[in-house]
Design brief:
Elements lengths: L11 H6 L3 E2 L6 E4 L4 H9 L1 H12 L5 H27 L3 E3 L11 H5 L8
Antiparallel strand pairs: 1-2, 2-3
Helix pairs in contact: 2-4
């Protein structure tokens, strides 16, 4: 794996063990990116329900060839998602961890120089 900021190589076992990662070169805080495959699998499980309700609402009665082609496409989508899930599990991606901005910001310059407006 590589650091997204400086592209230096990171140890694979160190990245999988630690929840809080730091690049040894640039000292950037890193985290593992969330996987896309589980979300897509959840969405794909809803497709047959949506199709059946669509067929009932429109009173469309698909023939055997239509049902077979829909089933083949559905199966191909599942196979592609399984391949994507395996690929994401074998090669997790890293991103820079964003630090939260503080909710309260102290404006110390306004106390020193009262001539400046407090909003700037």
């Amino acid at each position: 794996m590589q650091c997204p900021k400086c592209s230096s190589k990171l140890e694979r076992f160190a990245t999988l063990r630690a929840a809080r990662l730091v690049c040894p070169n640039c000292r950037a805080a890193l985290e593992l990116m969330p996987r896309r495959a589980p979300l897509l699998m959840i969405l794909l499980t809803m497709v047959p329900v949506q199709l059946s309700s669509l067929f009932r609402l429109t009173q469309f009665r698909p023939g055997p060839w239509t049902l077979a082609s829909l089933a083949a496409g559905y199966l191909a989508a599942w196979i592609a998602l399984i391949v994507l899930a395996v690929k994401e599990a074998r090669r997790p991606r890293l991103r820079e961890r964003l630090r939260p901005k503080p909710e309260i910001v102290l404006n110390l310059n306004a106390a020193v120089n009262p001539a400046t407006p407090a909003g700037k």
